[in-house]
Amino acid sequence: MGVTTVRLQADVEQHLEAIASRLNRSKGWVINQALSEYIEKQQLEQERWKQTLEAMESAARGKVVDASVVHSWLNSWGTENEQDAPRSGK
Questions:
Q1: Do residues 70 and 86 touch, judged by C-beta distance below 8 A?
Q2: Which of 42, 49, 59, 73 has its CA 20 to 30 A from that of 20?
């Protein structure tokens, strides 16, 4: 496990100490949890951005599905005749 030194603003340090005390955990544990969650969130956002760019490129190439087809598919959810997800025709 690595060691990193961080300078915290006084109010952040106070909140950190309060959280650690309330959870009966060390400040290091709280910081590690917070950073792990932050890193996971950043990775998810990066993946979503990548998927958004890919979708925009796909749409620019004309690979789209008509809105009425999508609405029909969504309306079929939970029914006996639930449809498969529509695919672009190109």
A1: yes
A2: 42
Mean of pLDDT over the chain: 95
CA dihedral for 57, 61, 67, 71, sign (positive or negative): negative
Listed residue (44, 39, 37, 31) closest to 3, CA to CA = 31
Q: What angle do CA 26, 20, 14 make, to 5 degrees?
A: 115
Question: 10: number of CA atoms within 13 Å, CB side?
Answer: 0
**pTM beyond 0.90:** no
Match 């760019």 to its residue by tokens.
Answer: 53
Calculate the alpha carbon distances from 82 to 19, 50, 56, 68, 73 in Å. Answer: 48, 30, 28, 15, 7
pLDDT tens-digit series, residues 34-54 = 999 999 999 999 999 999 999
Say if residue 22's pLDDT is above 90: yes
